[in-house]
Every structure is written in structure tokens, then in C-alpha cells.
Amino acid sequence: MTNAIFNNVIDRFNIHKLNIRDISKEYGLDPYLVAAICWQESGFLSHSSAYEDEFYKRYIRNRSKTFLKRLYPKLGDDIEIEKRQLATSWGLMQVMGETARELGFRGELKELYNSDGLKYGCLYLCDRIKIYHQIDTVLSAYNAGTPTAKNRDLYVVPVLNKQEILKEEKVVIECFGK
After folding, report:
1. Other CB atoms closer than 10 Å to residue 68's CB: what's the count?
2. Angstrom distance (rounded) from CA 88 to CA 111
3. What is the pLDDT at residue 2?
């Protein structure tokens, strides 16, 4: 990674560092790990989103209006928009809309672009920790819902590498501590 690219990453990190620090600590999580996930998932771009068509086809498409109303009582008549948004990942930690709903989020899903996305990402990470315990398995499950072997090189190793890089960066240490 060139210095210019890394400096751009750090500039984006600086925008969110206090939220990352405070929300991580609120959930008892290592802020360096949460920041590394944010870096991997969104590059610290809070308005990142990604629609996942395979997720939609596999898990969302056939959901009934009754089921969707249970997740989001304010749901109007156009359930297709909600379904598409459930199959979209949102914000710094790229939380799936369906995951946020299952964890109790009842706002408009676009609100996951703000600190709500960070909160629900941390809540989901805590859930994965309670289930899987080992950090490699936790990270794989965070990314894929359940741990997968192929995630080790594609997701787990990059997140752990980013965590180590952040632990050496002065501006990050000044915010998070050692």
C-alpha cells in the first residue's frame, strides 16, 4: 500500500475514530479490531452500501409480508423495497439489513449509514464472539454469517493484518490507547 493511499485511509479513519472508540468500548470490544473491520468492510466510508443479490435470492425473496412486519412494524405496502434493503449491507461495518432487523433495529435502514450501523455491527460482532469464541472463527462468521474455510485468506487474515497496522499508527494510538 502506498503512503498516499494509506494517508487517505487514515484521513477517513479520523472522521470516525471517536465513534469507533466509544461504541467499541460500550460493547466491550477492542476498538482496534472494530476499526480493522471498518477498514476491511467499507474503507472507513460510512455511506458504503452493497446489495447482495445471492443473499436476496437465498434468504429474502420468499419472505412473507407478515414476517417482514414482525421485523419492521412500520412497513408499508411496498414490501419489495424493504426486501431489497434487507439484502443490502450498510455503513462502516457493512451490516446486512436483515441482521440489523433481527438484532432489533426498527428505524429506516438508511440510518445504518450513521452511528447506528456501527452499533449494530458491534452488537453483531458480540453475538459472533458469544457463539464462536476464537477470533478467526468469529471474523469468518461476522463476514459470512457462519464460519467458512475460504474466508481465512479472503477476510480473516486481511482484518487481522489491518488491526496490527492500526496498532502501530500514531494517530490511532492517540485515540484508542495502547
Report:
1. 18
2. 13
3. 66
- Which residues make beta-bridge pairs with 51? 88
Residue 75 phi/psi, 5-degree rounding, is: -55, 130
C-alpha distance from residue 29 to each of 71, 126, 154 (Å): 27, 8, 23
In a domain, 102, yes or no: yes
Q: What is the pLDDT of residues 104-124, one digit of tens each?
A: 999 999 999 999 999 999 999
Domain membership of residue 68 (yes or no) is: yes
Tally of domains in the chain: 1
The Cα–Cα gap between 120 and 88 comes to: 14
* Residue 163 forms part of a structural domain: yes
**Domain carrying residue 16:** 3-173
In a domain, 61, yes or no: yes
pLDDT of 1 strictly over 70: no
- Residues 38, 20: contact at Cβ < 8 Å? yes
Domain containing residue 97: CATH number: 1.10.530.10
